[in-house]
Amino acid sequence: MALDSGEFFFRWAVGAAxxxxxxxxxxxxxxxxxxxxxxxxxxxxxxxxxWYPILGNSLLAESDGEGFWKQIIYFSEEFRNMPLLKxxxxxxxxxxxxxxxxxxxxxRSSAFIEKSSLYRFLQPWLGTGLLTSxxxxxxxxxxxxxxxxxxxxxxxxxxxxxxxxxILVQNLEQYLDKDPFNCSLYIxxxxxxxxxxxxxxxxxxxxxxxxxxxxxxxxxxxxxxHHRQKxxxxxxxxxxxxxxxxxxxxxxxxxxxxxxxxxxEEKVCKIKQQEQYQIGAASSNHLRKHKERxxxxxxxxxxxxxxxxxxxxxxIREEVDTFMFEGHDTTAAALSWAIYLLARxxxxxxxxxxxxxxxxxxxxxxITMEDLKKLRYLExxxxxxxxxxPSVPLxxxxxxxxxxxxxYKIPKGTDVIILxxxxxxxxxxxxxxxxxxxxxxxPENSASRHPYSYIPFSAGPRNCIGQRFALLExxxxxxxxxxxxxxxxxxxxxxxxxxAELILRPSKGIWIQLKKRPxxxxxxxxxxx
Length: 529
Known about the structure:
Strand content: 5-15%
Radius of gyration: 26 Å
């Protein structure tokens, strides 16, 4: 007997609902079984309580980045004397490491290079580029991209850094002897201009246009991704897409990818035009006069893997997006913290000024690589600022095999979160750890320090490929700023609220006052000539 359409639809709906219920029950059962097995194997490890089946500690986490970071600091201080710390994000255990010997077990190993499962939420934006990829793809990309950070290429990038640092000084000049202002936005726009020109060969003039959609999208994405990472109910893509946060996420994604796509397309067209021009050019001398700087994107377009294959368009975009993210926001945060610390410690700022005077005297010449090598105290200032405020305050790996840490068996599949912020405050390595003391990084004071006690750029085989670029940029910008200004701040430590999304940043910015340096006779106008 045939069924009418209404009865057929009813039976189909009941069957579909039953199937979904069975799938949900199976998933919950699997998670509960895995939850119990891992709980049993890791039972002896100290943990944050209370935790709940399936949800773990997620209900305890503050929703906003500032509140969440206060919790992390509290727990790292509370459990300072414990060898390990465990928390559950949803049904998955996460091991928190903040002692040099426990961190070393993970970072020195070539087996533990796979990023934590929480990094999958970065993949819609960054794909599986150098930051998020693993295995053979990561090894191949790392080998391919390492030459792009060679010293001779960094020398070419220095010219861009100097030009943009001088524009930054020009923008700051308007606040000379005026009321306090937030310098963080100006720093972020400067680093964005630098990364755009060095990564993509495009001068976007962000410093002359404060309303940058790209900057806003990056900051919003960092907040959204971080909130999703600690909220298991936002993990399923289907549910996330229909949520308010998910819709904002995909709006930001469109802005970020459209920006990169447009620049890559322009670069490819420009290269084709240059090739045609070279074919028809009559004079090689004429060509030399029009030589242009090479950007990271130029190198990617010419890069080949071990089999001689060129990167695909998708591969190029994910590496450019990765370099843009890692090279913009992280450096801006590091510079803001360094400026704040120098403003808070005038005696250290005087030492920086004295070193600058020793290197430059009354000269107005552009900064050179040789000048930067001589700025050893400034380099110690940067390293100490990164100790206190590491741009990436935590990062994660996932164990692809069992391992033992301080006698505890850690089962395969466990996520590990490494906490440089707490690691850098170990009083055994850094006495009075909250004090700002650049002298900690004098060669005689740091030579015997444990190699995994200070890891602002991670360490081991998966350390940051762009750390030399970052230090060069920070040194150049700080040297340019402090050749011109004396900086003060009334912002107390307790007034600088830290927020840790993907990057550790001051939630309300860094507020400073600018004074003219009494010993500086040069002006930014002369530097720009």
